[in-house]
Amino acid sequence: MKNKLVYIIISSLVVLAGCQSPDDIIPPTDKQGFNRLVAKITTGEYAEKIAVEYTINDLSTTTYVIPVPWFYPEDSYNETTPYMTAMKVEANLDNNYSIYPGLGILDLTKENHFTIIDPAGAKKEIIIKGERTKSNACNIISFSLKDKDVTGIIDNAAGTISLISIADLSNSLADYELSPHALSVSPDPAVTPLDFNNDVELTVTAHDGTTTKKYTVKKAIPEKIGAGYRKGSEESVYALDLTAYGFAMTKSTNPTLAVLGSYLVVNLGDGSTPLYLNRSTGAKIGSITMGSANAGGSITGDIYGNMLIANSAQAGGTLNVYKTKSVTTAPTLFFSMSNTTGYTIGTKMSVQGNLDGDAIIVATCESSSAFVRWIVSGGVVGSPEVISVADIGSWGGTDNAPRFTYATTNLADGYYLGHYAGGAGDVYYINGSTNVVASKLAGTGDWARGAGILDIKEFNNVRYMAVYNMGFFPQWALGGQIYMYDVSNPGLVTGSVADSPALSFKLEDVTSYNGGATPSEPRTADILLYPSADGFMMNMYYIDNASGVLGCYQFDCIDK
Fold first, then answer.
1. Does a structural domain hold residue 225?
2. What is the pLDDT of residues 372-395, one digit of tens each?
3. Contact (Cβ atoms closer than 8 angstroms) between residue 538 and residue 555
4. Whole-angstrom Cα distance, residue 525 to residue 543?
5. How far apart are CA 370 and CA 368, in angstroms?
6. Which domain, by its residues, includes 447?
7. Residue 23 belongs to a domain
8. Which residues pair with 55 in a beta bridge?
9. Residue 341 pairs with which residues in a beta bridge?
């Protein structure tokens, strides 16, 4: 009985459907043939790139004006005028619609006439043309106070910028970045000192000259979570192509990083003058003042406003280490050392602690298993000590020599280091008293990677170690990787580099701008953890000359 009932229902539906004539089948009234047009560039280096995707909202229109952006790419100054006379236009036609003649390469400076034919044969005459359009984007992309080490947290939807700080923010200037080609921000905090202890309203005007957006800059002192960084706060701030800075990756480079206030300093270690950038955006500002210093080795620094600049000293040479607190003031000689180690030093150095108080400076001896250590007490540098590490083997030249640091300024807390070691890529925890391996993280085992670049900083009562696993052949999808661990308790730093219970964060595919070329040697990297002075934020900066990338990740400990 049940089967018969189903049969009767189906038969009835078939009969009803059969009673309809073709004239009764009318296309839905919300169909117009297409609702989106795509315009592509046809010539030059951006050929086949989409210049604009234009969504059509007015169903009654017969003239479609494609708003071609004024510049392409949007953040460049490459005007689109030369492309307008020959742009490839495409449309997604609705089912059973057709367009005559077919779309293709059009001169968008003129009216192009077409006929849309619907499934019932009805015709609609349309015109497609283009118009270069200035951007209406008027966001503030980044915002930080000069010389205050305060970076604003931007909420574009709410139109607010929160300055997380307990410091006096009166009479402050700011560095900022606007949407590409936005005309202005008023008042301009880069030239007019403002009192950010109180709410400040800023108005951004877009490139089109008419669209504006208001922001309220607020000083805020939020609560912190109990310890460490807030899971979910990890954010990639930028990953930029090194060639955009004019860096030629075809010659020998050994990149190292340091922070001075609101600036990120980048040194190539090839004899060129280090650059300083807006560390919030990566935007290039200028070259640092060098004085008598030579940055042919490396740069490094502390989190208290000091940077060191070192030359590369071969065996028998002299290592000169300069110190500075400003990118625009000539550094002064901090200390010198006659290099009697038998190895090259100065290319990989690090600091743990405060160079104006108590700190430990280390310099790796290339092609060995040794390093030089200086103890700084009350801002005074002690005599150099050459330390040999047992049972880890030689790490080779610049490509493989580790850049590492002590866990704290207490020697007994030991230090971590890693190196290529024939593809093992292990990271060792070394007893600070005996300089013997106490434990290790097993490496990834990749034949073309080595976990030899390390940095350790404390953030919100947790000691973090960042490890850069250098990828020597990014053109074969063997690029850099980043791992960060909670090393507050060395006993938990067990297992492997990729799955230790101490692992807090990982990035297993660093952005590469290699472009398929074989990287020049040495293939080296640097990584730097930098907590903000107010303790609410921590940035992780990294640079890799094989992948050709300079990047920044940000973490916070704000209780939300």
1. no
2. 999 999 999 999 999 999 888 899
3. yes
4. 5
5. 6
6. 235-556
7. no
8. 36
9. none
